[in-house]
Amino acid sequence: MTAPVTGTTARTLGEGVLAVEGLVCRFGATWALRGVDLTINAGEVLALLGENGAGKSTLIKILAGVQRPTAGRIRLGDEVFAALTPDQARTHGLAFVHQDLGLLEPLSVAENIAHVAGFRRSLGLIAWRQQIELARELLVRWEIDIDPSTPVQQLEAAQRSLVAVARALARDAKVIVFDEPTAALPRHDVDLLYDAVDRLRAGGVAVVYVTHRLSEVSRLADRAAVLRDGELVGTVTVADTTEHELVEMIVGTKLLGQTSAPAAAAGDLLELRDVTGAGADDVSLTLRRGEILALVGLVGAGHRAVGRLVAGVGVATSGEMQLDGKRFRPRTPRDAQRAGVVYVPGDRLAEGAFPTLDTGTNFSLRERLAAVFTSGRKERVAAGRVFDEWNVVPADPAVPFASLSGGNQQKVVLAKWMTPRPDVLVAEEPTAGVDVGTKSAIYERLADAARSGTAVLLLSSDADEVAVIADRAIIFRHGTPKVELARDAITAARIAQECYAA
Length: 502
Ligand SMILES: Nc1ncnc2c1ncn2[C@@H]1O[C@H](COP(=O)(O)OP(=O)(O)OP(=O)(O)O)[C@@H](O)[C@H]1O
Ligand SMILES: [Mg+2]
Description:
By secondary structure, the protein is of the alpha/beta class. The protein has helices spanning about 55-65, 85-90, 110-115, 130-140, 155-170, 185-200, 215-220, 245-250, 305-310, 335-340, 350, 360-370, 375-390, 405-420, 435-450, 465-470, 490-500, and strands at about 20-25, 30-40, 45-50, 70-75, 80, 95, 120, 125, 175-180, 205-210, 225-230, 230-235, 270-275, 280-290, 290-295, 320-325, 325, 340-345, 425-430, 455-460, 470-475, 480-485. It has 17 helices and 22 strands. The strands form 5 sheets. A 6-stranded mixed beta sheet has the order 6-9-10-3-11-12, sandwiched between helices. A 6-stranded mixed beta sheet has the order 18-19-20-15-21-22, sandwiched between helices. Strands 2-1-4-5 form a 4-stranded antiparallel beta sheet, with helices on one face. Helix 12 (about 360-370) packs parallel to helix 14 (about 405-420).
């Protein structure tokens, strides 16, 4: 246990329930935090903003006691600490939804919740029936529709996020910290989470909310604190600040790239005729060379299933697919890759990458699977060059993938699948967790790929994103395509309207 620092009164460290002062965190040559002061008040939502790698998750890990700061102080209630242990954070009423969720995969939803909320015991034994009942009540109270006895590893990305949220809500916390909780959540669940945040604030809980979505800041937050390169740029009242001002605080003087006009699509490349299977029901559509086609819908609407069928992750039970005029029936992702179709899954950590390996290996794994022999050194040089191009920070292929910030991990995964350029790119949530600047850089890269002839199948739950980059959008309901929108007809409002139409 870390003992409280003596001789410091609460007064010297801000008035709120929680405050940090002079917080420094260094990883070798990287200064993730360079002396940050911040106060968090009861009954307020504080948005914590900043570019990928700005230091947000590091600050949160320090509060959770899983990362030790290099210098600085943390005040919780009346006690001041040089560093926290996870136990101290817990007993002082701090709860977390981490960016990587931190769930115990092989355990059930109920066990994961109990792990944080405490186990029910009867005669010294864990009372499982009671435990599951409690988890069920909690899930019902927060309107989360998941069976508490399901092992976490069987859940989809969005459900995992909800379990992490429920777990944080399971305790009567004084401070709840969310690190990009909506990055993997579909619209309906996002609304549930917003309601939960409103309820917490009304109940006097202090909420820290990390996000790259500025619309969430105005919807949820009272104040916003912006980090840049490990320094606090400033703290502002959201009601008095425009979105433009926030962007300026986040990116500094850097200019954001404009997304250029899409290329004119030419020629059909992929055709689906009456395809059924894996959640898609009698789907017919065509994907043209050089276009970005967005498939949109609510959870279970079938659009993601189509992406998976095309990528060889699921197999169609009937119907036919043709790629470049030839019969296309991939049974595995390898089959699809051999035919020139690559798939970037939305759940980066579960499916897209190998966190314990270094970044360079993560990058070149695609080549390895394709059995293209290259020496380790050559691989690293090639990976380094691509990382430079994609602004991966650090651009060093030797660092462990897990040590990259969330947005930089996303860049590595995307760079991997887009180098060399595939004929068909199935991209699921390609900008989940990336900052505003990186987002426009990724849009530019997708548009570039399309201009050079790649057909992009975009699966995105971000309607604004679809409106910015898609040439066409097809809205799915109940397993089938219902409406097609041409570029000029695609707006976020129209997409929402069509998704929810009866
Ligand atoms: N364990 C670690 N070892 C080495 N460097 C690290 C480690 N953890 C974080 N870093 C570095 O510290 C910096 C801050 O990372 P952090 O994860 O806090 O960023 P972030 O603001 O959460 O970004 P994002 O929006 O991408 O999630 C980055 O440069 C990152 O590479
Ligand atoms: Mg982060």
